[in-house]
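Go through the following before class.
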Amino acid sequence: GRETRLRVVLRVRPLTCTETRRGDRQVVHSLGNSTVHVNAARHDATFGFSAVFDAGASQEAVFEGSGMRQLVELAIDGFSCTVFAFGQTGSGKTYTLMGPLIQTETRPAAPGLLGLMQRSFACLLEQSRSRGSDLALSASYLEIYNEQVRDLLSPGPPCALPLRWSKTRGFYVENQLSVDFESLEAIADLLLQGSQRRRTSAHALNRHSSRSHALLTIHVRSRAVSTRPAPGTGCPSKQGTLCFVDLAGSERVKETGSSGELSVEANSINRSLLALGHCISLLAKPRGKRMHIPYRDSKLTRLLARSLGGSGVTLMVACISPSSRCLSETLSTLHYASRACRVTTRP
């Protein structure tokens, strides 16, 4: 019940080969003390976060330095935990969460390149064994595409699912499939199966641009073996969740060269991200000065309501490009992340 600030970390990806060939300048520099400096024409600003990972940071360094391991432990202890990555399209969000984009059952990612998700799964199963807990684990995976909620694990073509609200559960997705798993291989297969069904397209800024917001939720039900009571007296248990949110990237239609369906998708993405940013701006105000928080403005904000302003524990990973060409979007992400640093929840 103690008030806790959102933990916000920043990851700066390297300049791409295309950006280097084009002659883009690097305008974002890590100062080494959890701060970054933006140095460009008419822009000279410094931003501070819980942690900053520069272009040389490994996937393991991001996992250990972001506090992800502690989030896994809290989920086992019965808390509702969420990590979400946000930033401009092509800034490295999906890579940070999942590792390389091209992964199949026959071509898995190299261990060093695995993202926060796979490392968290391994940590979850390792913690389960070391704590001597009797854990029941299941996963659900959905995407929000053009304001439709679709199940990525159910068989057949993805179909829209209704989003409901109740006093006890808050906002929830009706008829969403939840799949039990007991091994690292099983949850890795579910992640791969769902991510391959997710909507992606190519445009001028990103060959594998995510066209939807994706939410993978691990449901953790634990029962302490050492405190198993006598038959008929009930059994103490905890139910926690660990939710990974891969937000589609903000993008300017002019920069991406999008038209037709791509343009419609981009406008839908930007509207939902704008709604999320508006909620975060209002939540960043002191509790006594807050207005009504408009969670109902989008499907995304409804599903993240508990994580942002309720009883959850939340980690935000802001991903940015250091390129001078991306300066406007980079500054937007940095200001967005800075506001999020002031948001508090009561886990």
